[in-house]
Amino acid sequence: MRGLWVRFGEVDAVQGIDVTAHAGRATALLGRNGAGKSTTMRVLAGVIPPTAGHVQVDGVEVAADPMTVKRLTGYCPDVGGLVPRATPWEHLQLSARLRRLDGWEPRARDLLERFELGGVAHRVTSGFSHGMSRRLSVVLAAFHEPGVLLLDEPFDGVDPLGVEATLDVVADARARGAAVLVSTHLRELAMQACDQALVLRGGARVATLDSGELGGERGAETYRALLG
């Protein structure tokens, strides 16, 4: 992705960002709310078109073929994405049918158990807490083992066991050669999950750093300075 710009009316939500996500690696988009993280992820997922710039996912131009991009990616949105009157199992069943997956049930059960959702697999999601909804969104994104995994704020409101399961999903995706992007404002968790981070502020990239440069107290000071 080179020179991504996204404009909503008179507001430039993203201003000329360059992002390269490599196979088998994980990259974090770090920054405060309003930094442009979620907008960037929505473009990469084929949800919204770029205003300008060159954006490809696995060799497919997002603006020209967003439906193919949606098939290639696994996307956990920052909010929403679940059907309130459907159960987790029904969500997975629909995903399997849409993607024509065979023999999907064992993987579905394994993911639900790993994220401690096995006991509520047949409850409608309208009664789920925010953390439970976040965990299910990660499950749905990773379910079909996509070549590009996009996780937007996957740690928001999630308990330690859910965080651990999400980190395992990222590690599994990297091990099978997927490119992973994780957007979050939680620096320490981003560094556990990812090799490097793009720090965004006001819709623009202010730095690209390796995970080691953002670790510990020194990394915290560097991050605070970049955010202004």
Fold blueprint:
Layout (H helix, E strand, L loop, with lengths): L1 E7 L2 E7 L8 E5 L6 H8 L7 E3 L1 E2 L2 E2 L4 H7 E4 L11 H11 L6 H10 L15 H13 L5 E5 L7 H16 L3 E6 L2 H7 L2 E6 L2 E7 L5 H12 L1
Parallel strand pairs: 3-9, 3-10, 7-8, 8-9
Antiparallel strand pairs: 1-2, 1-4, 5-6, 10-11
Helix pairs in contact: 5-6
CATH homologous superfamily caption: P-loop containing nucleotide triphosphate hydrolases
Poorly predicted regions are none
Order of strands side by side in the largest beta sheet? Answer: 7-8-9-3-10-11
By DSSP (H or I, 4+ residues per run), the number of helices equals: 8
Share of residues in strands: 15-25%
How far do the termini sit from each other?
26 Å
Family: Belongs to the ABC transporter superfamily.
InterPro entries: AAA+_ATPase, ABC_transporter-like_ATP-bd, ABC_transporter-like_CS, P-loop_NTPase
Domain ABC transporter: 1-227
GO molecular function: ATP binding; ATP hydrolysis activity
Main attributes of the structure:
228 residues, alpha/beta, Rossmann fold, 6-stranded mixed beta sheet, 3-stranded antiparallel beta sheet, 8 helices, 11 strands, globular
Characterise the protein shown here.
- This protein is an alpha/beta fold and about 230 residues long.
- The protein has a single domain, classed as P-loop containing nucleotide triphosphate hydrolases (Rossmann fold).
- It is built from 8 helices and 11 strands.
- The strands form 3 sheets. The chain has a 6-stranded mixed β-sheet with strand order 7-8-9-3-10-11, with helices on both faces. It has a 3-stranded antiparallel β-sheet with strand order 2-1-4, covered by helices on one side. Strands 5-6 form a two-stranded antiparallel ribbon.
- The longest helix is centred in the last third of the chain and has 16 residues, at about 160-175.
- It starts with a strand and ends with a helix.
- The mean pLDDT is about 95.
